[in-house]
Task: structure prediction
Amino acid sequence: MRISVIGTGYVGLVTGTCFAEMGNDVVCVDIDKAKVKLMQSGRVPIYEPDLNVLFQRNIKESRLSFTTNLKDGVEDAEVIFLALPTPPGEDGSADLSYILGAAEELGKLLKQYTVIVDKSTVPVGTAEKVTESIKKYSKNKFDVVSNPEFLREGFAVSDFMKPDRIVIGTSSQKAINILQILYKPFVRQGNPIYFMDERSAEMTKYAANSFLAVKISFMNEIANLCERVGADVDSVRLGIGSDERIGKRFLFSGIGYGGSCFPKDVLALHRTAIANNYDFKILDAVTNVNTHQKLVLTTKITNFYSDELSNKTFALWGLAFKPDTDDIREAPALEIIEYLTRKGANVIVYDPEAMDNVKKVFNKNTKVKYAKNEYEALVGADALVIATEWAEFRSPDFNKLKKYIKDSAIFDGRNLYELNTMHQKGFYYESIGRGIIDGR
Ligand code: NAD
Result:
């Protein structure tokens, strides 16, 4: 099938590449000239495990190409995917200007029946708005489908190739037939494709992300209470997770959720509720809990040093909002850097993939230094702070840590280490919801 994908970010590039891998002819369109040039020269602009191999293979087989020219990009396309940003506007509602702007442009270009698929996360009613925007300029027949994407950064390729489910919102049988053919290779193991109306599909995505955000914030509140009553949140997590109604996943407490999706999607759903005169109390609470949770680690550090941080140096391991991505959007690490440097401390940071992105944000902050690896970040540090649970941080050489970290103090926002080990190795160790260890 001839497919276009508009927007080649984390979702669009994975979508385009995976459809090409199944034998489709895919053109990806992006307005970012530098990004398109990079991709045309055979380089993947983001870090996403397993993407590069598929990307290279499909370019070589001439099934995957890139352009900044929308007209060339959508020519002869049977299906056009919109994978454009939907960032929060000033009041928290999703900014639809990218989507509706692209829809108007498409209206001027459509020549034959086309299925326009909205893959971006968009509020209920957007499919209708996209339809109206296209109709302003086009007399051609087309269908607009809501097909929200559930991939996780860090697992994007495997999630796209073997999705738990595919949600397709449309009332058009013609569009259903086309998308069924397109998605068939991805559900060979029997995972479901759910067909529903556009509004329900749009709501499904927000409901999924908001529910996951609730789960995280709930566990973070339990962790905060565990600290106050002398319980261990990791034991509690195991104790509740074995109940199938609760499930083992997404129960890890930490320093709050970040990324480009959960924060903005919770806000946007809340705005939808307000716009419809509904007081969705949990959503407000979830955002507040998360805002507070992002400060939990810096509060621990401030207390430990009696608010005297001005001549301290901190090593910071992990910058991406989660492991296996270079994405730093809304990453808790950014707030930690801002807080510590505002208090006059120096921060030596290290992340396996996100260093370049962080350099762009803090290029004027002379208190931030960049290490080549996790151990180099420790040289001259008074304490270590851990913000992202990259696998390579899980089993470090504790003798090196002990040798380099002047105060033998570790503030771990991701509960990476056993409390007994930290005591035996002689560290002061604070994590989330597990009590303070002082083995010095
Ligand atoms: P992104 O910011 O990584 O990528 C968006 C891309 O669109 C960028 O490359 C940008 O240059 C391009 N773009 C902007 N305006 C354009 C235009 N007019 N024409 C062509 N290209 C244009 O965004 P993302 O993370 O891929 O997210 C896209 C959508 O998918 C959002 O609605 C998001 O909520 C949703 N989503 C994201 C994820 C995720 O994990 N990132 C998962 C599921 C759904």
User: Anything to note?
Assistant: The chain has a mean pLDDT of 97. The longest strand covers residues 2-6. The pocket of nicotinamide-adenine-dinucleotide is lined by residues 6-12, 29-32, 35, 83-86, 98, 101-102, 120-121, 149, 151, 153, 260-261 (CB under 6 Å).
